[in-house]
Amino acid sequence: MKDIKNDQILKNFIVLEGLDGCGTTTQTKLLYDRMQKEKIPCASTWEPTGGSIGLFIRKILEKKQSVEPFTLALLFSADRNEHIYGRNGIAEQTQTGKKVICDRYLFSSLAYQSMFMDFETVAQLNSFYPLPEYLFYIDLKPEECQKRMANRSSVELFEKLELQKKTYANYQKALEMFRDSEMKTVILDGRLSIQEIHSQIWEILGR
Q1: DSSP state, residue 189
Q2: What is the pLDDT of residues 28-75, one digit of tens each?
Q3: Which of 59, 6, 9, 34 is CA-nearest to residue 205?
Q4: CA–CA separation, 15 vs 82, rounded Å?
Q5: Are 178 and 10 in contact (CB under 8 A)?
Q6: pLDDT tens digits, residue range 161-171?
Q7: What are phi and psi of 136, to 5 degrees?
Q8: Strand ranges (DSSP E) for the chain?
Q9: Cα–Cα dist 44/170, whole Å
Q10: 18's torsion region: left (phi>0), alpha (psi -120 to 50) or beta?
Q11: Which end of the chain is flanked by fewer CB atoms within 10 Å, N or C?
Q12: 3-state SS class at 44
């Protein structure tokens, strides 16, 4: 992993990560709404994106399409490249001073794609992308995430318990990988209430 470099920090870029069911989407929306209320220029986004590549990825996750694991990793990386560097992408928006809040980023690729292929290969595919200024990781055990997702009408590709356990271990590996970077990593207790987690995020950003 010595050859893998994500040494650029993208100021004003905020990422929320964690297992499926931990609440990243909820916290992304709460943070975006709070910034709007406080009249802070901001944007909310997610991965996979709503672009053509991202929409195809969603079909794979919903098990409507099937591709090889390496193909899926390449698709995620391509979608991310457009997300960051494309027209009106994250890099462009953050440079104007706008806060960009993203539900999932390259850390999800490291956690999920490396279940079916080599971790270092996935990391290399994502070594071209800057790190966010803030990474908020919502730490919730796989069993609890499964309980929260029990009422979902459909199960996506990575949402089975055994896969969630492997994903959790890969997240720990990904967090360790960037431990010495200049990215501000905050691990949040996913067992807390929605409002308590939001309050912690808001307090940290306010500092």
Answers
A1: E
A2: 999 999 999 999 999 999 999 999 999 999 999 999 999 999 999 999
A3: 34
A4: 17
A5: no
A6: 888 999 999 99
A7: -105, 115
A8: 9-17, 42-46, 99-103, 131-139, 184-189
A9: 26
A10: left
A11: C
A12: strand
